[in-house]
Amino acid sequence: MTNTILIHIDHAEGSLQRLIGLIERRGFHIERMTINDAGAGREVRVSVRPRDASRCADLLGRQIDRLIGARRIAPAAAASSVHVEEAVPCPA
Amino acid sequence: MSAAPMQKPAAQTAPVTGARLVVEALDHFGVEIVFGYPGGAIMPVYDAITGARFKHILVRHEQGAAFAADAYARVTGKPGVCMATSGPGATNLITGIANAMLDSVPLIAITGNVASPLMGTDAFQEIDILGCTLPIVKHSWIVRDPADIPAVFAEAFHVATSGRPGPVLIDLPKDVQVGAVAAPGSPYPLNEPARRVDPAQLRRAESAIGAAQRPLLYIGGGVRIGAATEQVRAFARATGIPAVATLQGLGVLPNDWPGFLGMLGMHGMRAANEAVQQCDLLIVAGARFDDRATGKLAEFAPHARVIHIDVDAAEIGKLRDAHIPIAGDLKTVLTQLNPRRPAIDDWRAQCIEASARHAFRYDAPGEGVYAPALLKELSEKAGDAFVAACDVGQHQMWAAQHCRFAAPEAHLTSGGLGAMGYGLPAGLGAKLARPDAHVVTITGDGSFAMNIQELATLRRYGVALKIVLLDNSTLGLVRQWQELFFDRNFSEIDLSDNPDFAAVAQAFGIEAFRISRREDVSAGIERLLAAPGPCLAHVIIDPMENVWPLVPPGKSNSEMMHGD
Ligand SMILES: Cc1ncc(C[n+]2csc(CCOP(=O)(O)OP(=O)(O)O)c2C)c(N)n1
């Protein structure tokens, strides 16, 4: 059920709050998170678990892609499905 | 004073203040109107706007500023701008920012804040407005260096208007407004690569459309936002596919368009909801499967394959899987989508026949004013110049059901947030944007009281907004739900001690009159539309009137209730 996402965010004020807020608001529990400075920004590795079966990690990835000043590194944004250790079905 | 200050900042010799750079940025981006309200933490900007090219409209409540700017943006397609001081000024903007977020409206909200050294100390009128608004903005900035102002504004205008539009917030600590800049930094390079529409999905969509037996076009607010009305009309004309619209998609197809079945969903047309339940292919253009449109999602369009077209890839598959997802700008997609005309004569005829059979009737018995008939007549008399700024409640649903809209920009309604109090300030913003149009605020006695102070703004600037106040002495929509779903336990919905709204309007210096009999409706509408200045018609209607039809909350759209 756990999905790990790697995101690059800029140093701007609020960018970390924005990311965490989005993940929780969209129905995911944050299990682990590491933040490392990466030159012009920060690299955030976050493991998330959906709060219920209707939450789809692929969709969460696309919602992260909408954030300004954030770039999803893995799973790659272009891929149609994210890296899932156990598949989370999108609502039919 | 053209674009020089933004593009050649280094050429400036004398130092300028951050506040001056704010004004220059707004002028540079062609802002015509800023809706705002001053206060301590934004005073340097107010000091600088005396030299601005844009006009400042002093509203009487910051929520009014945000709603007016929102409506200005919906009507013009350009970003609306509102401005407030720190603390209470900023928090008063919040409902308006949320409204813009949920309806994807490009809104630039500018707030002052306490000086940087005081931020984080619980200073007087200090609120973390960036934090408060994080979930309801597309993006936001705290400016820390006045030299960054040109770049931040450039990015803010770009973010607010590009892709799926939305509100942005720029928070300006007071020291940043007064700080002097010798040479402001250069704007961000804003070259967003144009996204290519996936040609493989387009070809799949074309063959699905060509082969469909019961296809249906599902039109949402994204069509107005993407300025794709003409492309949708051309597509509907070329394919002959029947269509339904969401609340925000009304006006894309004219009411009398053959094959247009009207609004779907909770208060939609029966023919529209039936067509959705029967269709085998749903072509979704700029809509997001909102629960007010779909009813019980699991039973929505049960036989349909879905082609979902949206500029926001995160909307596709959010609530309903798309068999053919097409992420891209609607205008571009529809121009490149050229299916052969499907053989659907029987289906089309069946839809058109059902639409005629279930059409609304306006022969309600009685002497009292029948609001649906009044709204229909109002929109028809105002004609193509009609623009409705609605509030929230029964009157909002009647306006959606019964008014004729020539274009989606003619129907301004708080769809996503459903915020009572939108109507009056939205009418103000829309009328300032389109002085030539018959802009009419359609409101209820509950909603009107929420931003009634903006009557003073109409008066001050001589804004010839027309107001139709449908007064049923109750919070009508809540009363209707209590009647239908809470055993008639009428709890806290009585407004029978309302003030005399016509007298209130007159006290604000606004022409006002009352309509209480059906026979006075036509003359009243004519008087309202002919009035040279702002004018309010206080219309007395039956407190027990309901909005029909209705899909009970949580039920499938196939379970419509029809009342009497
Ligand atoms: C700011 C806000 N508060 C509460 C509501 C809940 N609400 C929805 S409709 C409604 C009643 C509206 O009454 P009125 O404006 O008189 O319109 P009517 O339904 O009578 O036409 C209420 C209280 C809301 N949508 N917005």
C-alpha Rg of chain B (nearest Å): 24 Å
CATH C-level class of chain A is Alpha Beta
The share of residues in helices of chain B is 25-40%
Alpha-carbon distance between the two ends of chain A: 18 Å
Query: Helical region count of chain A?
Result: 2
Count of all domains of chain B: 3
Beta content of chain B? 15-25%
State the CATH class of the largest domain in chain B: Alpha Beta
User: What's the pLDDT, averaged over the residues of chain A?
Assistant: 84
Indicate the percent of residues in helices of chain A.
10-25%
- What shape does the CA trace of chain A take? globular
Give the CATH architecture of the largest domain in chain B: 3-Layer(aba) Sandwich
CATH topology of the largest domain in chain B: Rossmann fold
Largest sheet of chain A: 4 strands, antiparallel
Low-confidence stretches of chain B: 1-12
**Biggest chain pair contact, residues each?**
A-B, 19 and 21 residues
CATH architecture of chain A: 2-Layer Sandwich
> How would you state the average pLDDT of chain B, rounded?
95
Topology of chain A as a string of helices (H) and strands (E): EHEEHE
Strand content of chain A: 35-45%
Folded structure, characterized:
The complex is a heterodimer of chains A (92) and B (564). By secondary structure, chain A is an alpha+beta fold. Chain A has one domain (3-79): Alpha-Beta Plaits (2-Layer Sandwich), CATH 3.30.70. Chain A is 22% helix and 37% strand. Chain A has two helices and four strands, in the order E-H-E-E-H-E. Chain A has a four-stranded antiparallel beta sheet, covered by helices on one side. The longest helix of chain A is centred in the first third of the chain and has 11 residues, at 15-25. The radius of gyration of chain A is 12 Å and the shape is globular. Chain A starts with a strand and ends in an 18-residue tail after the last strand. In chain B, helix 17 (371-382) crosses helix 18 (394-402). In chain B, the strands form four sheets. In chain B, strands 3-2-4-5-7-6 form a six-stranded parallel beta sheet, sandwiched between helices. Helix content of chain B is 37%, strand content 16%. The model of chain B is unreliable at 1-12 (pLDDT under 50). Chain B has 564 residues and is α/β, with parallel strands linked by helices. Chain B has three domains: 15-182, 3-Layer(aba) Sandwich (Rossmann fold); 199-357, Rossmann fold (3-Layer(aba) Sandwich), CATH 3.40.50; 371-540, Thiamin diphosphate (ThDP)-binding fold, Pyr/PP domains (Rossmann fold, 3-Layer(aba) Sandwich), CATH 3.40.50. Chain B contains 24 helices and 20 strands. The A-B interface holds A 12-14, 17-18, 21, 25, 56, 58-59, 62-63, 65-66, 68-69, 90-92 and B 130-131, 134-135, 138-142, 144, 159, 164, 297, 312-314, 317-321. Bound molecules: thiamine diphosphate. Thiamine diphosphate binds at residues 391-395, 418-421, 444-447, 470, 472, 474-478 of chain B. Residues 391-395, 418-421, 444-447, 470, 472, 474-478 of chain B line the site of thiamine diphosphate (TPP).
